[in-house]
């Protein structure tokens, strides 16, 4: 039975689902989980078929989210499947159009099964940090599949940066049977310890990378594990255990199985091990809903991240300087430059993202940008505005960075209210950590995944930053423990050396995902920090040195701030 609803709501969908079950006389089963599938138009059939089949083994309510960000409508459409069309559960397909996508987590809340774990699955393009995604934050398990990405290795690296317990990827599930077979071969009598292991596969294949990392993580440094790139029809094509009594070689010889060669045995053995389907992989993930921490350990081994915040600024164009007479001249120069770049971005890409900063100069610049946009031939409905940091105080507090300029941006410049992304205040019903995660989620919703590529495609078009006398930017302070975080979009900052003590700041990878970075600095008290930032990239000692644009970085300085240059 299939029922469709247009321009509907979550409560109407729940009511219709109840009616359908009564009309069809369906027995209510004890469903073990809610499975949330996040996909895009034209990519529904395979994931739904796999999920429905898996629900025969693991009864689940399946909620499919189809994101239609580019739609001209702001509406929710739904399709409900029950009975033979939905396996042992029910399938609810939600098509979120336009701005409805801004609240997907709250949208599906009434549809979640009570007292049942939530699993979120991205069968195609995953977010950079699933735990920060609004539909990942509510889940106990988060499943991705980098095989479906344009660059699987790069996508796996991004997932490694944002990994949290509860994440998993189907490239890991693809080698479950391989790992069991290798473990069996390892103990083949007389079971001498291998002197080395060779993993063969296609270059940058994620399962091959994870197999190599799993072996190295399991065996330690005493047994070297090498990777050999080969041209093959299979991502992971062979594993060879080199032993004193001869090699044990496991090789994928067909879609159906593995050929195993053993020492002293001239006859190869064939082991049935069919290539795994999407159903096989999903079903395995649903068998265990507890976190797969081994996967997390293997990710760390595969991508030994240094955690150095400065790494996000490395390899980008060197900064340039613009010298002006005073702060007013800095403000005028920065605003003029920003408006020109915003206009170019909208003309070339149909959208622009601007990040504002606080402080006297930052506030004055934001107000001037708003005035300039008001009189410029710029379609401000295409402009999104963000803040680099915010004090965690009440929304109407005069201490906030956004309060002085909200009216100028929306009423004056005509930027839609829903395009002005403010950071939650302390009175928003969230604690500091929740508010930081929420702001990160807004970036995810707007497509800010590029924040987790060191030198990837930029997300923001213009990032404005002030600099403190100590060299801090946003709310990332020198030698501050909270300034070391690199795995989230936005980070909570406690015990700030500058009051108020609690703040929220965009993180290093996000700040470094801007095409153009503009530092606006005025005053002699900033001169030493400016000089230090111009020497070398050192995020710990001078945070201002560790933010650079993918295309340009410009320091707008008055003569006092430039005193030591």
Which labels suit this protein?
565 residues, alpha/beta, eight-stranded mixed beta sheet, six-stranded mixed beta sheet, 16 helices, 22% strand, globular
Notes on the protein architecture:
The protein is an alpha/beta fold and 565 residues long. Helix content is 30%, strand content 22%. It contains 16 helices and 23 strands. Strands 1-4-5-3-2-6-7-8 form an eight-stranded mixed beta sheet, with helices on both faces.
Cα radius of gyration in angstroms: 27 Å
Helix/strand-derived class? alpha/beta
**Strand order across the biggest sheet?**
1-4-5-3-2-6-7-8
SS field, number of helical segments: 16
Shape: globular
What's the gist of this structure?
It is built from 16 helices and 23 strands.
Topology overview:
Layout: E1 2-5, H1 10-24, E2 33-39, H2 45-57, E3 60-68, E4 76-81, E5 90-97, H3 104-108, E6 118-121, H4 134-137, E7 141-144, H5 152-161, E8 167-169, H6 170-173, H7 176-186, E9 196-201, H8 206-219, E10 225-229, E11 236-243, E12 246-252, E13 257-261, E14 269-272, H9 278-287, H10 293-302, E15 320-324, H11 327-349, E16 352-356, H12 359-375, E17 383-387, E18 389-391, H13 406-412, H14 432-445, E19 460-465, E20 490-493, E21 503-506, H15 508-511, E22 514-521, H16 527-533, E23 552-558
Parallel strand pairs: 2-3, 2-6, 3-5, 6-7, 7-8, 9-10, 15-23, 16-17, 16-19, 19-22, 22-23
Antiparallel strand pairs: 1-4, 4-5, 9-11, 11-12, 12-13, 13-14, 18-21, 20-21
Helix pairs in contact: 2-9, 8-10, 11-12
């Amino acid at each position: 039975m299939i029922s469709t609803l247009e321009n509907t709501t979550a409560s109407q969908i729940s009511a219709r689902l109840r009616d359908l079950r009564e009309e069809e006389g369906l027995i209510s089963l004890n469903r073990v989980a809610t499975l949330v599938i996040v996909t895009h138009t034209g990519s529904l059939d395979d994931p739904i078929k796999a999920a429905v089949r898996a629900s025969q083994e693991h009864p689940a309510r399946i909620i499919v989210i189809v994101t239609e960000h580019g739609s001209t409508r702001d509406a929710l459409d739904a399709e409900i499947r029950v009975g033979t069309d939905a396996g042992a559960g029910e399938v609810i397909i939600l098509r979120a159009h336009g701005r409805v996508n801004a609240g997907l987590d709250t949208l599906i809340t009434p549809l979640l099964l009570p007292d049942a774990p939530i699993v979120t699955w991205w069968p195609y393009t995953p977010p950079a940090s699933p735990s920060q995604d609004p539909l990942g934050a509510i889940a106990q398990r988060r499943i991705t599949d980098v095989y479906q990405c344009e660059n699987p290795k790069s996508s796996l690296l991004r997932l490694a940066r944002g990994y949290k317990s509860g994440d998993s990827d189907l490239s890991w599930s693809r080698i479950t049977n391989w790992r069991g077979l290798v473990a069996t071969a390892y103990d083949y009598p007389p079971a001498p310890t291998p002197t080395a292991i060779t993993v063969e596969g296609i270059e940058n294949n994620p399962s091959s990378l994870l197999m190599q990392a799993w072996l190295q993580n399991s065996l330690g440094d005493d047994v070297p594990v090498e990777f050999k790139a080969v041209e093959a029809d299979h991502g992971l094509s062979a594993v060879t255990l080199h032993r004193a009594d001869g090699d044990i070689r496991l090789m994928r010889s067909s879609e159906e199985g593995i050929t195993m060669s053993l020492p002293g045995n001239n006859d190869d053995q064939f082991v049935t091990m069919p290539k795994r389907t999407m159903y096989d992989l999903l079903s395995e993930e649903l068998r265990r809903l507890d976190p797969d921490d081994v996967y997390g350990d293997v990710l760390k081994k595969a991508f030994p991240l240094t955690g150095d915040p400065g790494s996000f600024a490395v390899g980008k164009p060197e900064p340039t300087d613009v010298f002006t007479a005073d702060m007013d001249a800095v403000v005028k120069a920065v605003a003029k430059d920003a408006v020109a770049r915003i206009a170019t971005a909208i003309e070339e890409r149909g959208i622009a993202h601007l990040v504002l900063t606080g402080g006297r100069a930052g506030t004055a610049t934001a107000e001037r940008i708003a005035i300039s946009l008001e009189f410029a031939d710029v379609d401000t409905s295409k402009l999104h505005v963000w803040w680099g940091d915010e004090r965690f105080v009440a929304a109407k507090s005069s201490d906030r960075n956004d309060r002085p300029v909200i009216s100028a941006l929306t009423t004056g410049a005509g930027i839609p209210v829903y395009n002005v992304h403010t950071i939650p205040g302390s009175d928003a019903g969230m604690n500091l950590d929740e508010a930081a995660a929420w702001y990160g989620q807004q970036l995810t919703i707007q497509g800010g995944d590029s924040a987790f590529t060191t030198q990837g495609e930029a997300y923001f078009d213009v990032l404005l930053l002030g600099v403190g006398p100590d060299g801090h930017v946003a709310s990332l302070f020198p030698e501050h423990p909270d300034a070391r975080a690199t795995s989230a979009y936005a980070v909570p900052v406690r015990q700030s050396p500058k009051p108020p003590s609690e703040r929220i700041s965009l993180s290093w990878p996000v700040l470094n995902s801007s095409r153009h970075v503009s530092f606006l600095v005025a005053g002699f008290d900033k001169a030493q920090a400016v000089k230090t930032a111009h020497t070398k990239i050192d995020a710990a000692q001078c945070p201002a040195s560790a933010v650079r644009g993918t295309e340009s970085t410009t320091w707008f300085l008055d003569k006092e701030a430039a005193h030591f240059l």
